[in-house]
Design the sequence.
């Protein structure tokens, strides 16, 4: 089930599928057109061949058929004429009356002869001789009265009695009459069709104005049986043609009987042997093959409809077209089914690409284009991610997690390492202030645009892996690309940041990366604070001195200045120190350590003096030290240090002054408890009431009100025990305007009322005095 | 992916094949299970008789005999020629068939036909017939005692032909029906005068048959025949009575009483003459035709009437004879079995079954209640059957299959035949003659078993004699030849042609016959 669902074409491929389906269909179509053309060509050629063969066959057939039919007709004619010389016939011819003695026996003999001659021949149905003198018909089957014979017993449909009378009067001409149906009286008296007969009329009497003629009734069916038995071709109709009268005597196609053919129109040569032609009747083509008989007025014609010959071929053609069409349909259906298979991978592909690709798929877009674009984008992003890979590589290299095998494998895998043989490590230190985060990010991006692997080791330190063809190229890169880039920041944020770059010596073995990194770090740490450069080359710069000039005395002096808030002293001291450091070319690392120590003192003072760190440094003291430590430029460190000292000393100084004021204030309050309030104090000490409140809180840790209430209640307790004043009087004495306020406050701070307090205190006192007695 | 597609292609192809084969398989093959065990198939050759072989009776016949038949049928008029071809050609031969006696003579000794003699004991029904009519076997038996076939049988014999007159013409012209040839001569002479273009006597089957009637009037025949009175074989043309017969015919002819075209007249023309009122007397014509002729004749002449009269007497006081049809023979046709058939046993059983009353009744009468009923012990066809006497029945006997033609020449029930085909007039005439068969019947003598050589010799001599006699008698009758010198020459010629030799052959063979066979069977029932 799942298989079917996943195999089902996704929507994304529908349009593409349609296009490909059309392509498949068109290929089918072209293939089928080719098949049709070839089939048609074969069909046309076969037709041509078949017609040609049919002509040949017809000719042969006609030769054979005409010769045997001629033979048959000639035989009958000869037999008929042989009767003419028979004595019985001649005798009968001379008789005028049946009563003549010899009539019966003569007729009997002739009848037997007729029977033998014709009835024995299967093609002859019967034959008869008409004797006009005797008014009788003598046939092989016996004698008849002519009227009975011709109108009832053997009635020719087309040749009634009158026809024969007419013929007889005009003089019988030997001829073959067109075939006709013969009817005969049946047992019940009605007529029934008997046979189809071709009457062969013979004038067997040589004298003109005959008194007798002979008719041989040829059974047409037997003739066609004979023709069929020749078994040469059965595709055409055979016509026996009377060329003299232009009429059909007999035809295998019975419908044509009685029609007259215009032999001239048929373009047949009636006299000279075999001839062939074609004719179109009602739009159908017919092949005519004609052969004249040995009889003057007869000919044999085979008419073959081309349709009959070509029908099987056309049938084949139509069948072929049908089958092709069927298969085309099946093919289209099959291709529709199969195209699911074709498109599933593409759909799958689009599906996969969709997950990675940046641009979403638009349904009017080609899947192929989409995939192509996405893959291109992916490739680019891969190209861009190469440095990232190298970053990892760098990271590992710096942390000594690469061995020789790894390096070999990597250099085989990545083009990058094969680019050139000179490497160097650049360590870039930056110290952006907090409010310059954006610029920091920008710098990082710009550094990546140098197309060198950049590794951020900390927020302030980046490592660049430089790789060029040779040493000069590295110098060139540093001076022409790196330096201008960094300079921009130096200029733009002058005073706000500092950038320092340390570049290792050039090396040619990747194993040396870590060593080179250390070198680059060292050059930065070892540089002299006296030098004010941005880029330090390991090869060119000289390290500063250790400079142990700062004795513990100096440090102690700095601390004293800080604790006592001696602002000017601290400033002068720092001037001396920094100047000294520069003048003796102190190492940056040492310098930084020294500054750290100074800052540490400042931090210590802040702690001791309980000065608010945040307010002082804008950050916790530890962070401040780290921040200053992270600065790269001696100037910047110097500035920061001075600023710290300035602030701290100034603060200490002001604190000392503040503490003198508060002491006065407290003394005043305790001696004038009843009168003391914020107003009286602000007036007395020339301070704003708000400031007094803040100041009090700042220095005493409690609010002025809380402080004075506590003092008043303590005084009241003293008075309660030592005097007999009432509670309300004591309240007044210690500064509460009414008794209720005094009692509420007393209860709040002591948990009991003033009277209760006095009562319980006396109870304890009495008891102790009693015991003392 | 491809595999999946290939599977799909295979499935599609298989599907197409299954559909195609399902379409190609005939439906009934799919539906019907195994075919039932088929009974033995018998190849039988019979004349077609213009009827189907799948009538209810034919099916019933197959059921009762428990056989299936593969019929080989040829039209009646060419059957003998075709079966002859089949038997002489090399192809497969039918198991059982009808042949004529000549063929039995020829093919029997060749070993083509089964000798039935050893099987007679296995055929109780046939045996019963033989007991009644021993000549069934005797006539067919060869000299060395082989029985190569069984004659077609009738339930009983009859006299089918006789003298028929245009009764109405005689009466209309104030004449009684003649009883002697003289009276006949006189009355016809008068009628000829009244109807000058008439042809009072005519015959449809040629001069020989017409003359045969004259010969039989004088108790003789045109060839070698068995003299019923003398109980011996004799040669007719050499007898004095033969000359008398010819002279009587000559007498009739010379006054124009015989159709001048008698020698050649066709059957059709004869019928025309008969129905058209030109012919008044028929010698030896089939009674069965009478009703048909009357039917047609009445249409032209409402008085038209035919009557059969007993044969007239000759001047010598002899009453003319007419041939008898025996119960054991319907002519020349014989049932024979192919000696090399693989189903001899079944064929013997079939042959015997055909002589059982049950089968005879089936083929002649059909199924009781459907095609016939038994009334007072007699069978009567039901009203649905079309007969001569019941012309408005639904089905003809041929269609119903009760024409006696089912099976292979099953014995003909004469009563059924009368009920089917005969009209009242014909039947009455036939009964008149049959009743008098004893007096007027010309019985055939015992059959003589000839060898095939003898047979050929007889044929060789007798065929020309037959033609010769016919032609000569024509000439004597017409007056072309005289009755004195010419007659003697005629007799001499016959002797020269070897008639005596043939006669002697007959007589010698007859003499050798056992006495019990030297009898004349006169029983027709």
Sequence:
């Amino acid at each position: 089930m799942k298989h079917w669902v996943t195999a089902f074409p996704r929507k994304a491929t529908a349009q593409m599928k349609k296009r490909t389906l059309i392509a498949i269909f068109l290929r089918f179509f072209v293939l089928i057109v080719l098949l049709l053309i070839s089939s048609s060509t074969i069909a046309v050629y076969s037709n041509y061949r078949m017609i040609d063969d049919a002509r040949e066959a017809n000719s042969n057939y006609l030769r054979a058929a005409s010769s045997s039919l001629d033979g048959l007709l000639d035989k009958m004619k000869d037999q008929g004429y042989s009767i003419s010389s028979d004595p019985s016939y001649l005798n009968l011819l001379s008789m005028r009356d049946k009563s003549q003695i010899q009539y019966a026996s003569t007729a009997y003999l002739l009848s037997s002869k007729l029977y033998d001659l014709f009835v024995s021949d299967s093609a002859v149905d019967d034959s008869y001789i008409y004797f006009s003198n005797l008014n009788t018909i003598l046939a092989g089957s016996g004698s008849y009265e002519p009227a009975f014979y011709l109108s009832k017993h053997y009635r020719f449909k087309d040749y009634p009695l009158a026809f024969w009378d007419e013929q007889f009067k005009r003089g019988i001409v030997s001829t073959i009459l067109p075939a006709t149906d013969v009817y005969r009286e049946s047992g019940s008296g009605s007529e029934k069709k008997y046979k189809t007969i071709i009457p062969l009329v013979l004038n067997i009497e040589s004298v003109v104005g005959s008194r007798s003629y002979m008719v041989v009734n040829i059974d047409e069916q037997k003739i066609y049986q004979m023709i069929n038995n020749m078994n040469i071709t059965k595709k055409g109709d055979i016509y026996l043609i009377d060329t003299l009268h232009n009429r059909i005597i007999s035809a295998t196609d019975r419908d044509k009987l009685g029609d007259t053919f215009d032999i001239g129109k048929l373009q047949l040569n009636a006299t000279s042997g075999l001839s062939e032609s074609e004719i179109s009747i009602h739009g159908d083509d017919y092949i005519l093959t004609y052969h004249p008989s040995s009889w003057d007025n007869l000919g044999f014609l085979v008419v073959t409809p081309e349709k009959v010959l070509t029908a099987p071929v056309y049938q084949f053609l139509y069948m072929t077209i049908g089958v092709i069409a069927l298969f085309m349909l099946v093919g289209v259906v099959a291709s529709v089914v199969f195209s699911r298979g074709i498109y599933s991978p593409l759909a799958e592909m689009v599906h996969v690409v969709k997950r990675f690709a940046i641009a979403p798929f638009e349904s009017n877009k080609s899947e192929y284009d989409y995939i192509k674009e996405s893959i291109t984008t992916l490739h680019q992003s891969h190209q861009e991610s190469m440095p990232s890979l190298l970053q990892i590589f760098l990271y590992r290299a710096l942390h000594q997690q690469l061995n020789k095998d790894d390096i070999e494998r990597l250099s085989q895998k990545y083009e990058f390492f094969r680019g050139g043989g000179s490497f160097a490590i650049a360590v870039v230190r930056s110290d952006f202030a907090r409010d310059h985060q954006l610029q920091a990010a920008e710098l990082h991006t710009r550094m990546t645009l140098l197309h060198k692997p950049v590794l951020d080791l900390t927020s302030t330190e980046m490592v660049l892996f430089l790789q060029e063809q040779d040493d000069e190229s590295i110098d060139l890169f540093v001076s022409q690309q790196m330096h201008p880039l960094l300079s921009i920041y130096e200029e733009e944020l002058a005073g706000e940041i500092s950038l320092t770059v340390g570049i290792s010596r050039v090396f040619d073995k990747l194993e040396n990366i870590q060593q080179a990194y250390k070198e680059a770090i060292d050059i930065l740490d070892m540089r002299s604070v006296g030098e004010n450069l941005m880029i330090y080359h390991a090869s060119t710069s000289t390290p500063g001195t250790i400079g142990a000039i700062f004795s513990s005395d100096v440090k102690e002096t700095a601390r004293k200045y800080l604790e006592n808030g001696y602002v000017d002293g601290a400033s002068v001291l720092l001037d001396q120190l920094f100047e000294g450091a520069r003048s003796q070319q102190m190492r940056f690392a040492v310098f930084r350590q020294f500054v750290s120590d100074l800052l540490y003192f400042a931090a210590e003072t802040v702690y001791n003096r309980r000065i608010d760190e945040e307010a002082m440094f804008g950050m916790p003291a530890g962070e401040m030290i780290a921040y200053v430590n992270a600065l790269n430029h001696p100037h910047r460190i110097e500035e920061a240090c001075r600023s710290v000292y300035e602030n701290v000393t100034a603060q200490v100084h002001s604190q000392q002054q503040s503490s003198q004021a508060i002491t006065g204030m407290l003394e005043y309050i305790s001696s004038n408890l009843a009168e003391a309030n914020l107003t009286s104090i602000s007036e007395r000490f020339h301070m704003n009431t708000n400031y007094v409140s803040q100041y009090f809180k700042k220095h005493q840790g409690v609010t002025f009100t809380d402080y004075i209430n506590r003092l008043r209640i303590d005084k009241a307790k003293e008075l309660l025990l030592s005097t007999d004043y009432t509670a309300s009087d004591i309240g007044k004495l210690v500064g509460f305007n009414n008794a209720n306020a005094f009692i509420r406050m007393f209860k709040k701070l002591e948990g009991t009322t003033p009277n209760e307090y006095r009562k319980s205190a006396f109870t304890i006192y009495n008891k102790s005095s009693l015991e003392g007695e | 992916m491809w595999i999946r597609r290939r599977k799909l292609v295979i499935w599609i192809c298989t599907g197409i094949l299954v559909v195609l084969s399902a379409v190609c398989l005939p439906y009934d093959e799919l539906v019907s299970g195994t075919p039932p065990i088929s009974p033995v198939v018998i190849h039988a050759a019979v004349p077609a008789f213009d009827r189907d072989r799948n009538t209810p009776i034919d099916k019933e016949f197959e059921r009762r005999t428990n056989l299936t038949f593969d019929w080989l049928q040829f039209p009646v008029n060419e059957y003998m020629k075709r079966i002859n071809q089949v038997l002489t050609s090399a192809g497969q031969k039918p198991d059982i068939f009808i042949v004529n006696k000549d063929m039995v003579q020829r093919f029997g000794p060749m070993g083509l036909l089964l000798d039935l003699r050893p099987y007679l004991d296995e055929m109780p029904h046939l045996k019963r017939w033989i007991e009644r009519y021993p000549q069934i076997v005797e006539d067919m038996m060869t000299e060395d005692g082989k029985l190569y076939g069984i004659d077609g049988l009738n339930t009983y014999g009859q006299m089918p032909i006789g003298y028929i007159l245009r009764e109405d013409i005689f009466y209309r012209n104030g004449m009684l029906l003649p009883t002697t040839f003289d009276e006949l001569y006189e009355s016809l002479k008068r009628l000829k005068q009244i109807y000058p273009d008439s042809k009072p006597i005519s015959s449809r089957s040629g001069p020989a048959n017409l003359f045969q009637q004259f010969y039989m009037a004088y108790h003789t025949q045109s060839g070698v025949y068995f003299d019923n009175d003398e109980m011996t074989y004799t040669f007719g043309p050499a007898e004095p009575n033969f000359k008398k017969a010819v002279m009587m015919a000559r007498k009739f002819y010379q006054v124009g009483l015989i159709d001048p075209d008698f020698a050649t007249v066709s059957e059709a023309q004869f019928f025309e003459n008969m129905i058209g009122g030109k012919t008044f007397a028929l010698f030896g014509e089939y009674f069965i035709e009478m009703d048909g002729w009357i039917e047609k004749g009445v249409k032209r002449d409402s008085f038209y009437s035919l009557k059969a009269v007993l044969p007239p007497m000759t001047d010598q006081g002899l009453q003319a004879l007419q041939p008898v049809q025996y119960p054991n023979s319907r002519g020349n046709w014989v049932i024979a079995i192919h000696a090399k058939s693989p189903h001899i046993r079944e064929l013997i059983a079939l042959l015997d079954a055909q002589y059982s009353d049950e089968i005879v009744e089936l083929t002649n009468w059909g199924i009781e209640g459907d095609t016939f009923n038994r009334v007072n012990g007699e069978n009567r066809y039901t009203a649905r059957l079309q007969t001569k006497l019941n012309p408005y029945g639904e089905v003809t006997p041929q269609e119903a299959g009760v024409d006696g033609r089912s099976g292979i020449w099953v014995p003909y029930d004469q009563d059924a035949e009368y009920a089917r085909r005969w009209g009242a007039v014909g039947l009455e005439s036939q009964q008149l003659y049959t009743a008098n068969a004893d007096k007027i019947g010309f019985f055939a003598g015992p059959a003589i078993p000839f060898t095939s050589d003898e047979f050929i010799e007889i044929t060789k001599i007798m065929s020309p004699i037959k033609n010769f006699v016919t032609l000569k008698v024509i000439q004597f009758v017409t007056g072309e030849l005289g009755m004195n010198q010419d007659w003697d020459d005629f007799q001499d010629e016959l002797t020269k042609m070897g008639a005596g030799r043939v006669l002697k052959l007959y007589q010698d063979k007859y003499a050798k016959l056992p006495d019990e066979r030297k009898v004349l069977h006169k029983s027709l029932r």
